[in-house]
Structures are given as structure tokens and as C-alpha cells.
Amino acid sequence: MLHNKFWQAFFALTPLIIFFLFFIGYAVFLITLFHQVPEFEADQDKVPFAVFGGLGTFFFMLFLAIFLSLASLVFYIIHAVQNPNLQGNNLLLVWIILFIFMGSISQLLYWIIEIVNKRNSTG
Questions:
Q1: What is the per-residue pLDDT for 13?
Q2: Among 39, 41, 70, 115, which one is most buried in terms of CB atoms within 10 A?
Q3: Distance from CA of residue 12 to its chain's centroid?
């Protein structure tokens, strides 16, 4: 699984895509909430159930983004440890520190620099 091109690209790109979709979903939630403000003011006794439906989708996307980011972090740390090009120098430690502190951006850079470029230069 570590050397499969699909999973390498999936774990490099998906957390960033989900992150942007999360903010798009949040913007849609806020826009629909602002459009319903006159209805909320007219019937102050009714509970606005539309707000809770939007919050459910919001939290689902949030937990999906967290889960995929953690899975991607574990995948790329294991890949870096097993990468023979990084053995014997401090580059392995640098990549792992970048993974922990920079998140998905560093995983995308690792995929581009260490996997795609090395694959293209050897084959």
C-alpha cells in the first residue's frame, strides 16, 4: 500500500481538497443562515431546525477532514521512515518534523519532491 501510486496521491491531495470543501460548506451554511434571519425574527417561538441540519453537515465535514489528515500524517511518516533515499542523513528527521508542524502542505511537497520526482528520474 505504501508504494501504490493511487494511495500516495490520495493521501497527499485529499486533506487539502477536504479542507477547501469544508470552508465552502461553511460559507454555504452561513449564507443560508443569513437568508433565514427574517423568518427567525418573525417566529421567535419556533426553533430554527434548519440551523441544526446545517450544523450536522458542518461537523461531519470537520470530522472527515480531521480523520483524513491524521491518516495522511501516519501514512507519510511511515513512508518516509521506509524510504531508502532518506536513510543515513538528516533529511528523514527534517521531513518528519515538517509533517508534524506543517501538516498537509508538507505532505504534498514530500509527495511531489521525494516520490513523483524520484519516480520520474529513475524511470
A1: 92
A2: 115
A3: 8
Structural contact between residues 76 and 45, judged by C-beta atoms closer than 8 angstroms? no
3-state secondary structure of 43: coil
Q: What residue type is assigned to position 90 of the chain?
A: N
Domain coverage including residue 27: 5-122
Number of domains in the chain: 1
pLDDT tens for 44-63 read 666 666 666 667 777 887 88
User: Cell match 470552508: residue?
Assistant: 23
Mean pLDDT along residues 25-32 = 80
By three-state DSSP, how is residue 122 classified?
Answer: helix
Q: Which residues contact 96 (CB under 8 A, 6 or more apart)?
A: 77, 80, 81
User: Which triple of cell numbers denotes residue 96?
Assistant: 518528519
C-alpha cell at 67: 480523520
Cell of 80: 518516509
How far is CA 40 from its chain centroid? 34
